[in-house]
Amino acid sequence: MNDILLPYKKYLPVGFKFSNNFINYIQSNYKDEIYPWYFLIQSAKYIDGRFVCVRRLYPNRNLIPFAHWNPSDDIVCFDGDDTSGDPKVFFVHTYASPGWEDRGNVENFDVWLEIAKEQSKEFKADCE
Predict the structure, then answer these.
(1) Strand partners, 36
(2) What does the alpha-carbon distance between residue 105 and residue 127 come to, in Å, rounded to a whole number?
(3) Residue 59 burial by CB count (10 A; 0-12/13-18/19+): exposed, middle or buried?
(4) 3-state class of 38 per DSSP?
(5) Which range marks the domain in which residue 76 is found?
(6) What does the pLDDT look like over 33-58, one tens digit per residue?
(7) Cys bridge to 87: 79, 96, 118, 121, which one at CB 3.0-4.6 A?
(8) CA separation for the pair 38, 35 (Å, rounded)
(9) 117 by DSSP, 3-state: which?
(10) What is the CB neighbour count within 10 angstroms for residue 67?
């Protein structure tokens, strides 16, 4: 496992693989490119907190949280049941009742990243 991903190690299901594009992106100098989204990998405490929360609130879902939309409780999670190395991404509104947390999904990290970049542009334009 890549060293940058070690804080995730204790939470990952057997066979789960992060996509190479996710790994490459979090190792890059992305800085504010997707603000106000931020990656949980910035702190092991963020990862621990979100995993505890998601597992407590949605025990029937195998979610791997990786990013948070800062102005809200929305997070994005990889499908923990996917072993393809290119997992689906779920939009989750944390603290919603089970069944109401699901805000949709996209095919993979690459699709989510394009959405996040667009959301970032819109957010920054609204703040000007």
Answers:
(1) none
(2) 27
(3) exposed
(4) strand
(5) 3-127
(6) 899 999 999 999 999 999 999 999 99
(7) 79
(8) 6
(9) helix
(10) 25
3-state secondary structure 64-106: EEEEEECCCCEEEEEECCCCCCCCCEEEEECCCCCCCCEEEEE
Q: What is the CATH number of the domain that holds 38?
A: 3.40.1580
User: Model's pTM, two decimal places?
Assistant: 0.94
Half-sphere exposure of 42 (CA within 13 A, CB side): 10
Question: 37: which DSSP letter?
Answer: E
- Kindly report the number of other CB atoms within 10 A of residue 47's CB atom: 21
Encoding tokens for residue 4? 């940058």
The total of structural domains in the chain comes to 1
Backbone φ, ψ for residue 32 (5° rounding): -90, 10
* 3-state SS, residue 39: strand
